[in-house]
Design a protein that fits this description.
about 80% helix
Length: about 180
């Protein structure tokens, strides 16, 4: 026969969920920063190829001369898409705005575990508000915070997935362009 979880067990569980989601969100932000730096390196390498794309025979009508230029443009587009997605992860204004909208649990009861609600109050007001909460209200607010942080981390992981795919396309196009320059 199983015993129902105690109040402290529930609080500890919710703290673990919140910590885990925050660590995952931080990991996504770190990966996005690395991806932005990688895109900058790829963009620099692409820019170094611009002089080699300008052939001395301006009037030539060789259709193969356009292959590296076309691949270069596609690479540039992929790098921009990947970089913008990674920047979206770091900024993530849309996710934070959605989070702020759901942080109020009821009409009169703001979520006191959301940092914005903590900062809005004076220390004395905040401590008084915490003391006035029932155990059930604390659990509900912790559960809401765990859900919102987890949802935000998931959104950032989805953007990171898209950004990684765009970066891999960029690398493949860049290597194709390099091979095109070598062969042609």
């Amino acid at each position: 026969m199983s015993n129902p979880a105690s109040q402290s067990d529930r609080v500890n569980f919710l703290k673990l969920v919140i910590d885990s989601a925050e660590k995952r969100r931080d990991a996504v932000e770190n990966k996005a920063s690395i991806l932005i730096a990688s895109n900058a390196i790829l963009l620099t390498a692409l820019a170094s190829l611009i002089p080699s794309l300008a052939h001395p025979a301006v009037g030539s009508v060789n259709p193969y001369d356009w292959i590296p230029i076309g691949l270069g443009m596609l690479t540039l587009i992929s790098v921009v898409v990947s970089t913008m997605s990674a920047i979206g992860i770091l900024v993530s204004v849309r996710g934070d705005q959605q989070r702020k909208q759901v942080m109020d649990i009821g009409d009169d009861e703001p979520n006191l575990f959301f940092f914005g609600k903590v900062a809005e109050r004076s220390k004395a007001d905040y401590l008084a508000a915490i003391r006035s909460l029932t155990d059930q209200a604390i659990l509900e607010q912790l559960a809401a915070e765990a859900h919102n942080i987890s949802r935000l981390a998931r959104q950032r992981y989805q953007l990171l997935y898209f950004s990684h795919r765009a970066f891999m396309v960029s690398v493949a196009l860049f290597l194709s362009e390099m091979m095109g320059l070598i062969i042609l």
